[in-house]
Structure prediction request, 364 residues.
Amino acid sequence: MIKALMLWGILLPVFLSAQTTAHRIDGPGGQKIGFYQYLPPNYQADPDVKHPLIIFLHGIGEKGTGIEPDLARLNCCGIPKYIDKGHKMVFTWNGKTEGFVVVFPQLASKYVTWPNYYVDEMINFAKKNLHIDTNRIFLTGLSLGGGGTWTYASSSASNAKKLAGAAPVVSPCFMTNGCNIANAQLPILAFHALDDHVAPPSCTINAVKSINDCGAKASPNMVLYETGGHRAWVTRTYDTGYKYQNPNIFEWMLAQDRRLKPNKKPLAKAGKDIILSTSQGTVFLDGSGSSDPDGKIIRHVWRKISGPSYGAMLGEVTARPRLIELNYPGVYTYELKAVDDRAEWSTDTVSVTVLPGTFPLTRK
Prediction:
């Protein structure tokens, strides 16, 4: 299957995957920018359909010349890896299925950090050449690319306003001015692992704090993994399913739009604590009291967070999951994540105390 490489205006064939093409364009001062462009399977079906755009910035190990074979190094990690392995970048959120257009440039080896013009050139290229929704442009990157994401979005409010969302992943301390993000009302979904010894998690924690300290109406979201180290992005952050994050990063992106007002986070209510007898051993949890002040709850996600290693949960992604086989005494604690239609969430916990004997179930 043949793709095309645009080299200083000359179209050259490159053998890649069916939906991925390699390009090379002129940047400021004659700097050449090489990048891959991915189009989802439904892209050609209707030219009037505008697709959300993801700009992905790689880490320090993938820098190069922007031409083959260097360019293929981008396929090692993050979103490019999923595309290279065959994922179609098609997701369903709140009843609507869409495919992402993705562009991922290669940083020239001479640079220590990502210059902002790389992102601007990707946006300009996409606006001129691709069927994209200009109100749904997303910037994300891992490690050095996470730093590039913070740098671009926080350098000016005008930069931040070009984006519908930004998702920096295990970033070093590259935040410049959180007030620019706050003033632009830019949604943020930041990721880090607490045991990261390469880029300390305080970089992300303090970056988010700097946004909140500026009175952000679009309150940033932050996911902190207990483990995973600096390479939490290998399987976790960009996972296209729900093994590590529900909703996943791509669903969160689909829920954002520059035309929408800043979201108000939902309120999770996991229900009253429960006292249960070992003879009963089963009970329903109830998160139906959760609410959203400016939309609706569309997903309830439950998980066990502590307690004896007994029991099982049926229907983890429902308002009222059933707990079974709680026939061993102890205190079991469960967390509810209530997710609204903007893919943002809040959490609440409920405890189930299992006591030996036979007596009526109690909620208090």
Residues 274-363 form a domain with the Immunoglobulin-like fold (CATH 2.60.40.10). The chain is about 15% helix and 35% strand.
